[in-house]
Amino acid sequence: MKNYQDELVIKSITNIAKDVYEMVLVGPGVKYISAPGQFINMKINNSLQPYLRRPMSISDYDDNSLTTVFKVVGQGTEILKNKEIGSTIDCLIGLGNGFSIQDLASVVLIGGGLGTPPLYKLGKELASMGVKVTTVLGFASKEDVFYVDKFKEFSKVYIATNDGTMGQKGNVLDVIKHENITFDYYYTCGPERMLDALVEAYPDFGELSFEARMGCGFGACMGCSCKTKTSPYKRICVEGPVLLAKEVIVNG
Ligand SMILES: Cc1cc2nc3c(=O)[nH]c(=O)nc-3n(C[C@H](O)[C@H](O)[C@H](O)COP(=O)(O)OP(=O)(O)OC[C@H]3O[C@@H](n4cnc5c(N)ncnc54)[C@H](O)[C@@H]3O)c2cc1C
Ligand code: FES
User: Fold this and answer.
1) Which of 77, 148, 187, 192 registers the highest number of CB atoms within 10 A of its CB?
2) Of the candidates 42, 43, 50, which has an alpha carbon nearest to the alpha carbon of residue 74?
3) Ligand 1 binding pocket includes 71 (Cβ within 6 Å)
4) Does 233 sit in the ligand 2 pocket, CB within 6 Å?
């Protein structure tokens, strides 16, 4: 898999939900993205603090720009949200395998919180091929909800919130069952507990994007390895972040 390092220019930073920001970056290195579901690894500062790059999913991209959505959870993302428009960020681009684009009759996209963004470009591409796309998004509360209108561009959207302040009270699996949503294949990204529950419910026909604490982000340090049914170890940053449902070991 080809990837690339580039100084991308920050075009915009927009607050879209509680502590959640959308950042648009531009630069020629963006053309090295080859599939929805790949990620970038951002060097937050020129100083040593924070030392490690921070991995972020890509919600949308074209030949020269990419969009990423991040939540402020610690030092790195706090610095990121306060970056100046027009300044640059050193990024490793086009990391990981990404989701497969398949000519299917119907799919469901299942996003959990900050796992929602990488499904957007995927859904757009599938819908443009004539695939019937349904989207189910789960968030903790109404104030955390984002991207609903964007997914409505190409799909029917269902929302679940844990506290019931928007959409259906409960989680994404509750919505799929309650609304009797049927599909040939599913694509999902979100908290590991949600992914494990989905694999248990639908073990045979889906793709799940996993997160792991990362060192290098390109396969050198083995820091992101996990066990799978198909090989002793897979590196989430190279052989993932997308794994097939049938190879995932629940709680593995
Ligand atoms: C492939 C991949 C794609 C990702 N895509 C996104 C994205 O699109 N949007 C987004 O907001 N975040 C995403 N993340 C998580 C993001 O990288 C972390 O939130 C970020 O590194 C936190 O940096 P920080 O310095 O602000 O927080 P830190 O100070 O490093 O940590 C703050 C808190 O966040 C937790 N945390 C840090 N990194 C991770 C991680 N990788 N997984 C789970 N918890 C973590 C820590 O345990 C701690 O509780 C992704 C992670 C991976 C591996
Ligand atoms: S983060 Fe280094 S091998 Fe994956």
Assistant:
1) 187
2) 50
3) yes
4) no
